[in-house]
Specification:
- By secondary structure, the chain is an alpha/beta fold.
- Helix content is 48%, strand content 15%.
- The protein is built from ten helices and eight strands.
- The strands form two sheets. It has a six-stranded parallel beta sheet, with helices on both faces.
Length: 211
């Protein structure tokens, strides 16, 4: 039987928010259309949202064309910045991935830009643990559609999605697969769901759905 664990990235596998804030503020400081600078609180509010929605929240006073142009520049600079500076991995991530990959296929689906997941995998040498990835920047689709795309593309008989926000939970529901809340991440869930308080707990909890 083909079994898969699909992960969200930000707030589930790592926290890149501090360096993302730095990289975006460097871009914003160069743009004459705004004097906006973002904070860590802003970034945590943006986590899990599509880049189009982030642009609306961050620069509501600007036209759609201008704010999306700025966000595209932020995305490009973010990938370059993180490829040199990395982020903060949650404890025991590689040990957990190595253990899980012995029994299940691993995937990442994120509402990020093209190149972000690839940068993360390359920076830490994690490509060997993951079978496939998908993102909003590549397909233009919502996370639930991308989760379903990965399930269908890889012919998974059983799959579970692990994420940290309500949007992740809703996306798993939309895709028709079980959800596990990464309670150590950035968000809360408005209904009772299985949760893990650390990466080390995942191996035991996924057995309920995949074994």
């Amino acid at each position: 039987m083909n079994k898969g664990i699909i992960f969200d990235l930000d707030g589930t596998l790592w926290d890149s928010s501090e360096n993302v804030v730095k990289s975006w503020n460097e871009v914003l400081s160069r743009r004459s259309e705004t004097d906006r600078q973002i904070t860590m609180a802003d970034m945590h509010n943006y986590m899990g949202r599509t880049m189009k929605k982030i642009a609306e929240l961050m620069l509501p006073e600007l036209s759609e064309e201008v704010r999306e142009n700025i966000l595209r520049e932020c995305e490009r600079h973010e990938n370059d910045y993180l490829s040199s500076h990395g982020g903060v991995l949650f404890p025991d991530l590689e040990q957990t991935l190595a253990e899980l990959s012995q029994n299940y296929k691993l995937f990442i689906v994120s509402n990020c830009q093209v190149g972000y997941i690839e940068m993360f995998l390359k920076y830490y040498g994690f490509e060997k643990y993951f079978t496939d990835t998908e993102n909003y920047g590549n397909t233009g689709m919502e996370k639930g559609d991308n989760i379903r795309l990965v399930v269908d593309r890889n012919k998974l008989d059983k799959a579970v999605y692990i994420g940290d926000t309500q949007g992740d939970c809703d996306s798993a529901d939309y895709a028709g697969i079980p959800f596990i809340h990464a309670a150590y991440g950035f968000g809360t869930i408005n209904r009772e769901v299985p949760n893990v308080n650390s990466l080390q707990e995942i191996a035991e909890v996924v057995k309920t759905f995949l074994d």
